[in-house]
């Protein structure tokens, strides 16, 4: 995990970004905010002199997840694929030339097969990523390490939480906050909390 160096009320300790892969080639999940030199320095330090990033996966369009793309590309020194789901047919994203993908697309690197799962709710383009070898889930902002998440669409969000229940991950790596070591409890807690809130309204 490489912390985005952007702590705040909405980002908690900061945006979690993740370097995935057991070999010299890595995949980076999310990129933090724009123009945060400390983050790029930490990322460079984590890579060391031997490792390189061969692809970026973006969980959703919010600035604290996509903002660091230009800085990461500059660090790498060449263009690489940036995988993402489309926001909608009506939204033209001009901030980067994304590689739009479909649900269940797989990206592979040494030691990791990553299955990209369409999990809307927090945003219309939200993605979670299943690390198949470790049965670990990168949950983006659908589930946080602490506190509750916000969402754009309740119905989609509940469907995504139920998808997580079916996956039964052994661990959740969230977009913000600490790693979740008891995923089923956390997912059930989120569903229960949301249902209680709806019943109260």
Automatic annotation (TrEMBL):
Protein name in UniProt: Metallo-beta-lactamase domain-containing protein
Organism: Panagrolaimus sp. ES5
